[in-house]
Each structure stands twice: as C-alpha cells, then as structure tokens.
Backbone:
C-alpha cells in the first residue's frame, strides 16, 4: 500500500541566555512548521539553552531538567495544539550526578512516544560533553510513532556509521539528528569549508549505506564563551534533508529558518532493490567491529 | 618521525575482448605512472578482461587464472622493472568450481605482498557476480608493504562502512578500491547523476569516518553485452583520490587517464585528533551489527 508523502520541518534557530526565550523560539517554529503543513517537526539539539558545553562548570547542571520538565511540557502542549509529532532535545537530569543528552519524541496528542539518550559523547576543545553527559545506556532503538518508526540519534552520533546501521537494521524509516555544530573561529576558511562539507557528506553517506532518508536540524548563531576559559562558537546551521540515495532534497543556510520538505518513504524500498546492501552484509566477518582496535 | 608524501597513481583504463591488449594497457599505465614519480600504482578491478559478469556463462570460468597466472607474472615484472608497488586484480581460480575476485598487492621487487579476496559480492542486473565469485573467506586484513599498511578492498565493498572500519581498526593507512562500476544505459540522467554522486559520497564518507585517505580506481569505456541476455555497460571512470577529511584531492573524468597525486599520510594523525571517532565508538552497544536484522 502506497503511503502518502510525509511533510517534515526542521526548525533551525538560535539560542540565547534566557531559556524562556529559547523555548518560545522553538514553539514559534513548531507553529510555523505546522502552518506550512508539516506533520513531523524537528528541533536542534539542546534547544532550551545556549550550548553550555563550551567549558566545565558544575553550576551549569542547574540547567538540567527531568523528562517531565518544562521543556517537555511545553513541547507536549505545542504538539497537541498544532497536531504534529515533535522531536525535541533536553539536558536530562536522571538522578543527582547523572545527566544525559536526550532526544524526546512526542506524539501529536502530546504523549511521550519515547526517548533516545545520546550514545556517542564528544569531548573536544569547546565541546566538553563528557563532563556533562553520561553516555546513553539504552542502545540504538528507534521509536514508533503515528508517522512511522523514527531512528532518532543526536549530533556526535552522526559521525558513526555504526549508529545509523543499528537504527536501519531495527527498521527505522528515517534517521533524525538534532545537532549543535559550528565553526571554530580560529580555523581558516579552507578548514571550515572542509569540516562543513565532511559533516554534510557523512550524513549523506548514512542515507546511501542504509537506503533511507536522513535529516539533521542544527542550531545557528554566535554564542560567546562567557567563562573566559572556553571558546566562542559560531553554529553553522545548514540543516539538511537527504533522500535515500544520499541526494540533498533541501538545505538551510546560516540563519534561522524553518525548512519544510516532503519525503516519499516508499522510495526506500525501491532504492534498496537496486542497492541491496542489507542483503550482502558479511555478518560472519564483522566480529572485530566490537573491538577497540585490531592488533596485527 | 615525519614521513615523506606518498605519490600514488590510479591507472584508469578501458578493456576489450583481448586479454593481451588489456594487460598491455595496464603495463603501459604502470610505466606512465612510474615516469610521473608514483611509487604506488593502482589498477581497476579485473583489468585483464572485459567485465564478464554482465551475464551467466559457465564458459567464462576459462578467464580465471591462479595466483601465479599470467596477469600476476606480468604485474610482478612491471613492478620490478619500474620499481613501484602495484595493486592488481584478477579473476582467481582457486580450485575447480571455486573462484574469487581477488586483489593482488605486489611489492616493488615483484614479490606478492598479499592478496585480498572480495568479501561483499553484488548480484544485480548486469552485475551477476554471485554466479562467478565465491565470497572471500579471509576477512578484512590489510597488507603490509614497503610503503605502509594498505587496506585493499574491492568494488562492492565500497558501499559497506563495516569493511572500511574493519580495515581502519587493523591499522590500514589508506583504503584502496579497485572497482568496475558504470551507468545503466536505461537510467535517465538524473538517476545516473545520483548514482555517481552516491558512489563518490560513500567513499568520501569512509575517509571521514576513519580519518584516512581513500582511493578508488575505476574502469572506463563502453562494453557491449555479447550474449544478448545481459546488459551493455558504460563504465563511469571518475577514479578518486580523497584526503582524510573526505576532501577530494583529485578526480578523473570519463576517459582513460593516469591520475597522480601526493598523499600526506601523517595528516591522518592530526585529523584524528580533532575528530577522535575511534576513541568514542560504543563497542559495548554494537553487538547487533552481527545480526541480519533486528526484530522489535
């Protein structure tokens, strides 16, 4: 049976120091997306705050909120009000001393369909995430919604073909990455261009390797380091909607934007018939993917 | 200790019905590559013959040759004569009824450094490889040469992130793909463009995910189906040299060409410091990569 095309929206926006304003920007984006006909709306990673991982500060754990905290409540209300499925992202307080970087999948009736706790955690200059986020312990499990089975992953996960494959093997119909990535101001233009192009390319590759659409919603804007010990960040936007052969269907620019496109989820089946990679995986010979390094 | 840049050459050429002519074209290419200063020379997949997998014909097993057959002997002689390491590719006769699609790695002194038997075997209209080639049984093991540790894979392998990762985890310093891929004449221009771009993208992604250079050497030319039961093939060339951030260093066109470029193998270490993906792989959570499908 042929499915109707799925209209999806990526709400690419900037964040400032006030969580109230940030949540309002997210809700405004959801409203605009719904008005444009979107049924699935995706927000950037950690959209309720500035990207606080620029430096280490135990005080910033105050930003964390439980799964039923203010961001979740506001997203559920918006999902219900506008009748859309929403992918949000929070700094999740799970217990004292235990926090995660967690994506929320909220049904159009406001119920929580499921969560995904970021599995791969970066730690680089300006991206001190290992200080804040405990790596996810739930594995790579897609989340069923009224719109289909969604393979929700988060940011750094997008560099790992393993994560995309695990979701595809579990029947994900689309891969979804809320993300927060930007230019390091000290890099020259060539390096900045290479990094942005690598980021687009690795996501396109997940679509190709797995024969399914991939979307990534990034934040935008300049966020100054307020500590003097971290780094400024210039988030690069460029939220992407990619088809199952890796073709770019639509792409945002450097500024705030609601990007809307239609996805033909039936096309994955056709693409996998001409590129039947799942048929030919050598599962008898991949054991060492479970090792850190292979010493020969 | 800083290594000198490695000059590599991809000999992109066409094949006709006469194996003698094809071998001569390969040897001419090796000579031109060496004259241009290359120390590592890579030939396309199955360069001694037309791409015979366009259709099923038990008679075509006559094309298979042992590891010390005429192609190997001629490549060894050329490697020694021109003082270069050569990556060749043969239809390997291992035993009656047992053949492989095998890459040969030949040292500059003419000795066989090692072989790689293609692990992932395609089978699609016009690419009936499962009829001819038994899947490799040696796994993903790079081959040590005087020029470094080479992660040699073959054609269809290039669509599988698992293969690239296995080689990177085993210390491969460069991924090398002899290949034979082309346009299906019945596809429209948009589909042909998407396929070529997907092919470039997936290979760039292996460089990005693993922080190492990737090269692919493809054949060119139109090869008519001689059976009436198979398909014509228009091989698309576009042999690629890719740096460790996925950047395209050089790329051939649709015609025969010897593509030469210098690779800075030291750059991989620097790239992996800013993108330390090997550090963060969730080897505790990848078990299901060894399954065919995950049923939830």
Residues:
């Amino acid at each position: 049976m042929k499915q109707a095309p799925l209209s999806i929206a990526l709400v690419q926006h900037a964040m400032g120091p006030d969580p109230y304003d940030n949540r309002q920007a997210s809700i405004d984006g959801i409203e605009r997306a719904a008005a444009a006909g979107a049924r699935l709306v995706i927000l950037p990673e950690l959209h309720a705050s500035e990207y606080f991982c620029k430096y280490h500060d135990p005080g910033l754990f105050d930003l964390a909120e439980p799964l039923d905290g203010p961001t979740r409540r506001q997203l559920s209300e918006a999902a219900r009000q506008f009748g859309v499925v929403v992918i949000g992202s929070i700094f999740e307080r799970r217990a004292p001393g235990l926090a995660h970087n967690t994506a929320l999948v909220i049904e159009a009736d406001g119920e929580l369909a499921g969560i995904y706790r970021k599995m791969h955690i970066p730690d680089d200059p300006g991206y001190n995430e290992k200080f804040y986020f405990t790596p996810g312990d739930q594995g790579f499990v897609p989340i069923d919604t009224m719109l289909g089975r969604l393979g929700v992953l988060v940011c750094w996960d997008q560099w790992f073909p393993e994560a995309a494959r695990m979701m595809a093997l579990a029947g994900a119909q689309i891969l979804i990455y809320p993300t927060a990535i930007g230019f390091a101001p000290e890099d020259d233009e060539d390096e900045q261009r290479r990094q942005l192009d690598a980021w687009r390319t690795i996501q396109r590759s997940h679509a190709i390797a797995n024969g399914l659409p991939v979307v990534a919603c990034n934040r935008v804007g300049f966020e100054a380091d307020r500590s003097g010990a971290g780094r400024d960040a210039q988030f690069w936007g460029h939220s992407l909607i990619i088809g199952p052969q890796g073709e770019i269907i639509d792409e945002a620019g450097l500024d705030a934007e609601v990007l809307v496109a239609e996805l033909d989820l039936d096309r994955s089946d056709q693409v996998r018939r001409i590129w039947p990679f799942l048929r030919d995986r050598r599962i008898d010979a991949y054991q060492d993917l479970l090792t850190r390094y292979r010493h020969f």
Q: What stands out?
A: Residues 6-289 of chain B form a domain with the Nitrilase/N-carbamoyl-D-aminoacid amidohydrolase fold (CATH 3.60.110.10). Chain B has one domain: 6-289.
